[in-house]
Automatic annotation (TrEMBL):
One of its GO terms (molecular function) is iron ion binding. It comes from the Eukaryota. Belongs to the cytochrome P450 family. PANTHER family: CYTOCHROME P450. Its cofactor is heme. Keywords: Iron, Metal-binding, Oxidoreductase. Pfam families: p450 (PF00067). This is Cytochrome. InterPro entries: Cyt_P450 (IPR001128), Cyt_P450_sf (IPR036396).
Length: 158
């Protein structure tokens, strides 16, 4: 822990002076927050006209604070993007090395009625695909390292 102490000092100083990576981080956070705010505002405007069945509409209709909704959207974006792309990348890579299995996956997908226009419900019928995805995630977990730091708290629920 002592070895890391000077590093903390460096980024704290950079943050205080608003230079280097800390400056870039601040700008990036501003950009992400701005984009998500626009997404929320445009959803609020269109909520009366569309069916409002999506998660964002549900959060807004529940009357949640806009800042809370914005933070939830950001955490969904962050948590969902790399994890899903890594999982799909490993699956596709494994399938390219196992042509027989790849054919079985393709057969399963094309055997579904209206396979040109697949929907969420069609996933329920893709048992072979699910097995491949599970095996691929077993072999190559998308989130290998998940560091969790517990901040000092007086009470942890018990
Ligand atoms: C293959 C894809 C995914 C994998 C492997 C994955 C894996 C994980 C793991 C291991 C955690 C930590 C659980 C814990 O120990 O607390 C987690 C948390 C989380 N994931 Fe995913 N995830 C995936 C996709 C997604 C997607 C698509 C979303 C959102 C659209 C999402 C949203 C979240 C959120 C919000 C948390 C935090 C939950 C909490 O704070 O309790 N994840 N995920």
């Amino acid at each position: 822990m002592w070895g890391a102490a000077p590093v903390f000092a460096v980024w704290r100083l950079k943050r205080a002076l608003n230079v280097g990576l800390e400056k870039e981080l601040k700008e990036a956070v501003k950009l992400v927050c701005g984009s998500v705010n626009e997404m929320i505002w445009s959803k609020e405007e269109s909520m009366d006209s569309d069916s409002g069945n999506d998660l964002l509409s549900k959060f807004l209709k529940a009357g949640l604070d806009v800042e809370l909704v914005r933070n939830m959207v950001i955490s969904f974006l962050m948590a969902g993007t790399d994890s899903t792309s890594a999982a799909v990348t490993w699956l596709l890579w494994l399938l390219t090395g196992h042509r027989k299995i790849e054919k079985q996956v393709v057969d399963e997908v094309t055997s579904i009625k209206n396979s040109e226009q697949l929907g969420f419900d069609d996933l329920k019928g893709m048992n072979f695909m699910k097995a491949c995805l599970c095996e691929s995630m077993r072999l190559y977990p998308p989130l290998v390292l998940l560091p969790v730091v517990l901040s000092p708290m007086k009470h942890i629920c018990y």
